[in-house]
Specification:
- With 444 residues, the protein is α+β, with helices and mostly antiparallel strands.
- The protein has two domains: 202 residues, no CATH class; 194 residues, no CATH class.
- It is built from 16 helices and 14 strands.
- The chain starts with a helix and ends with a helix.
Length: 444
C-alpha cells in the first residue's frame, strides 16, 4: 500500500510541477471526449425528434394516399390552360378495405375540397378536408380549450362546421376568439367550432409523411364535403390550372397495436393493387416501417460520428506518448538515481503509467464537462447563430438541432480516454525502466 501511495504521490507531483505541459498534453483527450459526447448527443437528439414526429402521426397508422400518376405529371413548360386529371382512391377501395380488414380500429377517409379559404379580406389557398371524427384519434390531434372536434352528429346532420389548424387561427383571427366565427370555403360558409393545438410537424419527418403542415388544415364533416362539393377541385399551378377529380385524398387505417401494422400493411397493399398497381396513382405509407428505418439509420450514423470523433482521442494518445518519450530523456538522471537507490523496473513503469493514466483520466473528466456543456448549449445557441443576418445572406438554412445526452456515450468515451492514456504510456514507461542505472547517472 505504501508503494502505491508513494508512486501515486511522485507521479502527481511531477505533473503539478509541469502544469502547463500537462494541460496541453491532455488537450487532445479533452477535445476527443467532448467531440464524442457532442456528436452522439446531436445524433440521438435528431433521432428522437424524427421518432417523435413519426409517432405523432400514430405508430399504428397505415396511410393510403392518392397521388398524381407518373404518366400524367407535367415535365415541360406549359402555357396557361386547364389540365383535367382523374386518379386516386375510389369508393370501391374504401369498401374493400372495410370488408377485408375488419380488425382495424379505425378506417378514416379524407377528401380534399375547395380552392380558397377566406375570412373578410383575408384569403389563403385551401387546405380543407372532409373527414370523420375518428381522424382526431388516428392523428393524435388535440383541440384547444373552449372548442371541440367533429362529432357523429355533424356527420349525420351534414353540419356546416369546421375545425381549423392553429396557423389558420393565428392568420385569420390574431386578436379574436375563432369559435363561432364564419369562414368561407370557396362560396360555402362554415362555422368554426374548434381550433387544433399546434402540431410540431412542419419541416419534420412527420410533416414529410403527411405532405403538408397540419397547422394549416381546415376539417369539415365528410358528409358535408360530399354534399357541398364535388369530387372535382381546382388547384392553381405555375402558368396553369389543374382540375383534378379525386374521390378520396387519403384513407387512414389504424391497427390494434404496432405489432399488427406490418402484416396489415401487406394486406392493404394487396387490396390496393387490384385496381391501382399499373396506374401507380396510390401510395401506401407506413410510419412504423419508417420508424424502424430511422432507428437503424441513426444507429449507423452514431457509429460513424463516434468513429470520426474518436480520431481526436487517437491524436490525444499520440500526444501523450510524444510528451512522455521526451520526459524519459529529460528525466534520465532522475531515473538513474532512483534505480541506484533501489527502485526496480516495476517502480519506474508504475510511476510513468500513473502520470499517463492521470493525464488521460483528468482529460476525460474535463472532456465530459465540456461535451455535456456543448450538448446543452447546441440546441439553443446554434439556431440563434444560423438566424443571424450575415449567415442567412451567405447560405439559405432551415436547420433544427436537438441534442440528447446519453449515459453510454459519457461512460464509453471516458473509459476509452483512460485506456488510451495507459496504452500510449506503456512504451515510454518500458523505455524508462530499461535505462541502465550507470549510464543514466552519467547523463547530463
Amino acid at each position: 500500500m505504501n508503494f502505491l501511495l508513494e508512486t501515486l504521490r511522485l507521479g502527481l507531483t511531477n505533473l503539478r510541477l509541469h502544469l502547463l505541459r500537462s494541460t496541453l498534453t491532455s488537450l487532445g483527450i479533452i477535445l476527443g471526449v467532448a467531440a464524442v459526447i457532442l456528436m452522439v448527443s446531436i445524433g440521438e437528439g435528431n433521432k428522437l425528434a424524427a421518432i417523435r414526429d413519426i409517432q405523432s402521426l400514430g405508430a399504428r397508422n397505415i396511410i393510403i394516399r392518392s397521388q398524381n400518376p407518373p404518366e400524367e405529371r407535367s415535365t415541360g413548360k406549359q402555357q396557361a390552360f386547364w389540365i383535367a386529371k382523374k386518379y386516386g382512391l375510389l369508393d370501391a377501395d374504401l369498401l374493400r378495405i372495410q370488408e377485408f380488414i375488419p380488425d382495424a380500429v379505425d378506417i378514416v377517409p379524407v377528401k380534399t375540397v375547395g380552392s380558397d379559404v377566406s375570412y373578410g379580406s383575408k384569403r389563403t389557398t385551401s387546405q380543407t378536408f372532409g373527414t370523420l371524427p375518428e381522424l382526431k384519434r388516428a392523428l393524435n390531434l388535440e383541440v384547444q380549450p373552449g372548442g371541440r372536434y367533429l362529432v357523429p352528429a355533424d356527420i349525420d346532420q351534414r353540419s356546416r362546421v369546421a375545425v381549423i389548424g392553429n396557423s389558420i387561427a393565428e392568420q385569420f383571427f390574431p386578436l379574436h376568439n375563432p369559435i363561432g366565427k364564419q369562414l368561407r370555403i370557396d362560396e360555402r360558409i362554415v362555422t368554426v367550432v374548434g381550433v387544433l393545438k399546434p402540431i410540431g410537424l412542419s419541416g419534420g419527418a412527420g410533416g414529410a409523411l403527411v405532405g403538408r403542415d397540419l397547422n394549416l388544415d381546415v376539417h369539415i364533416p365528410l358528409t358535408t364535403a360530399e354534399l357541398e362539393f364535388s369530387d372535382i377541385y381546382t388547384r392553381r399551378m405555375s402558368g396553369s390550372f389543374a382540375r383534378e377529380e379525386v374521390r378520396f385524398t387519403e384513407i387512414y387505417v389504424t391497427t390494434e397495436s404496432p405489432e399488427d401494422v406490418i402484416p396489415t400493411a401487406e394486406r392493404v397493399r394487396r387490396i390496393i393493387a387490384i385496381d391501382h398497381e399499373e396506374r401507380e396513382d396510390v401510395v401506401i405509407i407506413v410510419p412504423w416501417e419508417l420508424l424502424e428505418n430511422v432507428k437503424r439509420t441513426t444507429f449507423a450514423m452514431n457509429i460513424l460520428l463516434t468513429a470520426i470523433a474518436a480520431i481526436s482521442l487517437l491524436v490525444g494518445g499520440i500526444g501523450i506518448m510524444n510528451i512522455m518519450l521526451a520526459s524519459v530523456i529529460e528525466r534520465t538522471r532522475e531515473i538513474g538515481i532512483r534505480r541506484a537507490l533501489g527502485a526496480t523496473r516495476r517502480h519506474i513503469v508504475s510511476q510513468f503509467l500513473v502520470e499517463t493514466g492521470t493525464l488521460s483520466a483528468v482529460g476525460g473528466i474535463l472532456g465530459i464537462l465540456l461535451g455535456v456543456s456543448l450538448s446543452m448549449a447546441v440546441s439553443h445557441v446554434l439556431p440563434w447563430v444560423l438566424e443571424l443576418g450575415s449567415i442567412q445572406r451567405l447560405i439559405d438554412v432551415d436547420i433544427s438541432f436537438e441534442a440528447q445526452i446519453t449515459g453510454w456515450s459519457i461512460i464509453v468515451s471516458f473509459l476509452v480516454a483512460s485506456m488510451t492514456g495507459v496504452i500510449f504510456g506503456i512504451y515510454p514507461a518500458m523505455l524508462a525502466s530499461r535505462q541502465d542505472p550507470i549510464e543514466a547517472l552519467r547523463h547530463e
